[in-house]
Amino acid sequence: MIVRYGVTRFVVVTKNRAYKFARIRPLYTGLIIARAIHFLFKFVLWGLLANRAEWRMWQSNSESQDFIPVLSIWFWGLVIVQPRAERVTENDLSKSPVWQKYSDDEELSVPEQYGQWKGKIVLVDYAHLGAR
């Protein structure tokens, strides 16, 4: 019987077989797990939470003319569906009551958070309002 060690596995070689075992390396494994968790939170869970927050905000303010509606939510918030809004310029926003109402909020002080829908300026990204 021969035992060989590689970077990710160790191999036990017998007369007729080779058995390859994954190496459990706590530091390396810990780094991989930490990166996976970071990726999961940064790219999946934060987006899911933002979608759910925006949906909740819309549910509690569906009569408001300030927000673009959330038409549906899929897969527990992995996807939300909203109507498409047209881009607006800072000049368009300067005349908008919605801009006047929300632009003091640092996250809502940029034109990309707004759009024109059905002839009105509306917030298109308002998740953080629902997360408060």
Gyration radius (Cα, Å) is: 25 Å
Which word captures the global form?
rod-shaped
Count up the helices.
Answer: 4
Q: Which class best fits the helix and strand makeup?
A: alpha+beta
Beta strand count: 7
Spans where pLDDT lies below 50 across 5 or more residues: none
Protein model, in words:
There is one protein chain. The protein is an alpha+beta fold and 132 residues long. The protein has one domain. 38% of the residues lie in helices and 21% in strands. The chain is built from four helices and seven strands, in the order E-E-E-H-E-E-H-H-E-E-H. The chain has helices at 26-60, 90-94, 97-102, 127-130; strands at residues 2-5, 9-13, 18-22, 72-74, 79-81, 114-117, 120-123. The strands form three sheets. The protein has a three-stranded antiparallel β-sheet with strand order 1-2-3, with no helix packed on it. Strands 4-5 form a two-stranded antiparallel sheet. A two-stranded antiparallel ribbon has the order 6-7. It starts with a strand and ends with a helix.
